[in-house]
Amino acid sequence: MGKIKLRKTMKKIILTTLTIIFTLTLSFSQDLITKKSGDDIQAKVLEISANEIRYKKFDNLDGPIFIISKKDVLMIRYENGTKDIFNNDKEPENISSSIAKSSKDLFIQGQTDATQYYKGYKGAATGTLITGLVSPLLGLIPAIACSSTPPNDKNLNYPNPDLMKMSDYYDGYTHKAKKIKQGKVWRNWGIAFGVNLAAVLILSAGQQ
Questions:
Q1: Are 204 and 136 in contact (CB under 8 A)?
Q2: Which helix (H) or strand (E) holds 31?
Q3: I need a surface site. Which of 74, 115, 181, 203 has the fewest CB within 10 A?
């Protein structure tokens, strides 16, 4: 019995050690972009040009390529342990007007554009309404599922593909789009619940 317990203990120790090693390996296999605002971006840096940095988000390497202005970046720590520090306080003369905007301006513009252009919530909202009319309890399933997931990229309907490559604009647009989607989905569930409640009250009054 003692040998069996010892073997189980050893297996646990080995598995725990391997898990720690894997986690540490994974954490050091990414580049870290530190913005002047203090925010960190876990990324895979693809290209650094005179005015901008192109990268992919580390948790979505098959996703879109993002662009960030070098003037907004303080430092990049690479996966091999080296780092680049950017002290370019002077504004580049030939930088585009879109990239020249501050991170906050790009985020706000993304939210504003999403309010105007994002219409991809209609399928989720309509499905929730129909299911909710059948049964409000059943309607909770699509309502929760649809409101908890971010909008699909193909449904974002963004007006400018170049702006969507900039992380701050992308974050602002997708954040607002998700909020819009959540609001429309739960509004339709509320309508379905109200219709069912009214029907129950009418039927109850008719039976009295």
A1: no
A2: strand 31-35
A3: 203
pLDDT tens digits for range 14-57: 666 555 444 444 444 688 888 887 788 888 899 888 889 999 98
CA distance 66 to 46: 10
Spatial distance between the Cα atoms of 69 and 51, rounded to a whole number of angstroms = 6
Q: How far apart are CA 42 and CA 56, in angstroms?
A: 9
Q: Which amino acid is at 192?
A: A
Q: Could you tell me the two tokens for 47?
A: 């290209």
Closest CA to 173 of 156, 198, 194: 156
Alpha carbons 105 and 18: distance in angstroms, whole number: 44
Token readout for 194 is 């109200």
Contacts of 40 (CB under 8 A, 6+ apart): 32, 33, 34
Task: Give the DSSP letter string of 40-102.
Answer: EEEEEEEEE-SSEEEEEEGGGTTS--EEEEGGGEEEEE-TTS-EEE----SPPTT--HHHHS-
CA–CA gap between residue 174 and residue 139 (Å, rounded): 25
